[in-house]
Prior knowledge:
Distance between the termini: 63 Å
Order of helices and strands: HEEEEEHHEEHEEHEEHHHEEHEH
GO molecular function: ATP binding; glutamine synthetase activity
Protein name: Glutamine synthetase
Catalytic activity: L-glutamate + NH4(+) + ATP = L-glutamine + ADP + phosphate + H(+)
EC number: 6.3.1.2
Strand content: 15-25%
Keywords: ATP-binding, Ligase, Nucleotide-binding
Oligomer: single chain
Amino acid sequence: MSLLSDLINLNLSETxxxxxxxxxxxxxxxxxxxxxxxxxxxxxxxxxxLPKWNYDGSSTGRAPGEDSEVILYPQAIFKDPFRRGxxxxxxxDAYTPAGEPIPTNKRHAAAKVFSHPDxxxxxPWYGIEQEYTLLQKEVNWPLGWPLGGFPGPQGPYYxxxxxxxxxxxxxxxxxxxACLYAGVSISGINGxxxxxxxxxxxxxxxxxxxxxxxxxxxxxxxxxTEIAGVVLSFDPxxxxxxxxxxxxxxxxxxxxxxxxxGYEIIKKAIEKLGLRHKxxxxxxxxxxxxxxxxxxxxxxxNTFLWGVANxxxxxxxxxxxxxxxxxxxxxxxxASNMDPYVVTxxxxxxxxxxxx
Length: 356
């Protein structure tokens, strides 16, 4: 096994200029990540330098078998924390051979919103709090929980320390450092309220890059849990009963919200979000109704509420924002399995472009 480890960690730059590019895309479920690698003649710094590629869409639920070729368009590059050196991870979106985005390509539609002049002028910032749960591979039960049983009730686990409270910290720390190495704007991590549940934060990121960074951070986490023999779950309510669900709270601001007088702009934006509450909820993740019950730091799924420092609201405004009269707000409705391209672009569309 030591030889295998030595080979995996070979430094290619000692013998060749060639690099390995891992092309990453989203499968037919909208959450499953797929990837494959190819050799390139030398280092690459911009997606435009990368060749398009293809894959068998019928094997990922994205194309029929009789016309299965789907084309990958490279969109964002990150350093590869697994192969290291000049090797890269490449976030791609998918198109038909004729150049049309396939129906499940959410990035293409998001890019249209983020390239709109009115949105560009507002420089939208996002900070996404991605919650997730680590599961034991054989039994699909949270890491560290007794088989067929339950740990003590919630309370000591949030940001907790100790072998009976922080379950899976080695995975979480490995992911944190790997994301920093890759160039992801990961801004922090913490243990969550339910044992075996954790969170990482991405941002502040501008526009479409927020979606790219969340997806590559998810990919890196999938790879690390693969190595650890642990299953990664983005289910918004992995355990029934009096256990917290998992969300992807999305913090948001625009240029005018960050300037003097921005609090009035924030209140108008929140009013618009309330008018489109049902449309947003429908796009904010599968199974969210199991999480948004009104009992675990969330508002009921059918209710739109906002408040200052209120973690039981749909939209939370921080005390600092209220005091400064400018800043950002937090949309607490997105589920952990949301598509960040959909959520970020929809928030921008509703608050900047939509005219009620």
